[in-house]
Amino acid sequence: VTVLFHLGEMATATESLDEATFEILGEELGYKIEIVSPEDEDRELLEAFDIDLEGEEAAETEENLEPRPPVVTVMGHVDHGKTRLLDAIRRANVQGGEAGGITQHIGAYQVWGEHEGVNRAITFLDTPGHEAFTAMRARGAVVTDVAILVVAADDGIMPQTIEALNHAKAAGVPIVVAVNKIDAEGANPDKVRAQLTEYELIAEEYGGDTMFVNVSAKTGEGVRDVIDAVLLTADAELELTANPNKLARGTAIEAKLDKGRGSVATVLIQAGTLRVGDSIVAGTAYGRVRAMLDENGEHVEEALPSRPVQVQGLSSVPRAGDTFLVTEDDRTARQIAEKREAAERNAQLAKARKRMSLEDFTRA
Ligand code: GDP
Ligand code: MG
């Protein structure tokens, strides 16, 4: 406090300071200050358990890596048809005779489609609107490989269209534009193409490199073309691979507390293979995978990269965007979760203390 005072900075002993002030303070007092972000802190925590995710990633060789399906998010202005398009895509995928199966909402699902003679999977994050995307990105999790930007042809671009495309661009995620509602009266798909050129989304037919697809989620026209465009864009712009032969890790997409089943969390596997019985930690939740369900409510024993599954058996409900990882044993998972919990508690206490000291200050 004295040194800060001499530097012309009034502070109390319980007050938080910004990073620059800390560095100056360190210099004055002869200490070298190292600023540790929450991410760094978590990395160090994991390293204490001999887990080095980045190092592991960097050490992957071509022989270890196998292709994985693209993970796709649907974004766009409200009422432009995101939900209906997701439904149409799901329906396009249901094979004749198999319809009627219970499809439960787990926040993500995979569809299989033939593309250039090869049967390929695509994972859709079924959380329409970009709130989920934004929330996850704010927590450092970019799980999406390709974004489908839905624009209604009878309405044209709208504020949330621009917001959505800016989010995708900021995250470096390639965009496929689904020009929807081409069946509707007053639909003008070319106008949408023209409007989006202003935002550097230039259709291939205009000499650009963004795929635009005319579609009607209502009649089903063009739905297959949307799926094709996603696969073409993924193949052209991305190298989608992961090592399936290691302990699983990934991100929680959504989670809730179920009366009968306890914590149920939909997780997206991003590397490795998740198996029933694995010890797992997701944010501050931990436990053993008691059961895994797919989007059809079917039990699955193991899940490969890009596969979304609903996991039962966690001690509490993780947040969307929390990363998860499988550990060697239960104890490790629990200890990591507890250490994180303690770190969060400390951070909250520090914040509360700061608020209190500010109140004292204004009261005085
Ligand atoms: P969201 O808010 O983007 O999820 O939009 P919805 O999927 O809920 O669709 C909003 C409205 O537009 C609903 O009444 C849909 O039935 C309608 N809609 C969606 N797609 C189409 C389409 O291709 N053609 C027509 N005519 N209506 C559509
Ligand atoms: Mg919707």
Automatic annotation (TrEMBL):
> Which superkingdom?
Bacteria
Q: Which residues cross the membrane?
A: none
Quick one: which residues bind GTP? 76-83, 126-130, 180-183
Instruction: Please state every residue range assigned to the domain named Tr-type G.
Output: 67-239
Subcellular location, record wording: Cytoplasm
Annotated function: One of the essential components for the initiation of protein synthesis. Protects formylmethionyl-tRNA from spontaneous hydrolysis and promotes its binding to the 30S ribosomal subunits. Also involved in the hydrolysis of GTP during the formation of the 70S ribosomal complex.
Family the UniProt entry places it in: Belongs to the TRAFAC class translation factor GTPase superfamily. Classic translation factor GTPase family. IF-2 subfamily.
Q: What is this protein called?
A: Translation initiation factor IF-2
Organism annotation: Gulosibacter bifidus
Q: What is the lineage of its organism?
A: Bacteria, Bacillati, Actinomycetota, Actinomycetes, Micrococcales
Q: Which gene encodes it?
A: infB
- First and last residues shown, out of full length: 421 to 784 of 994
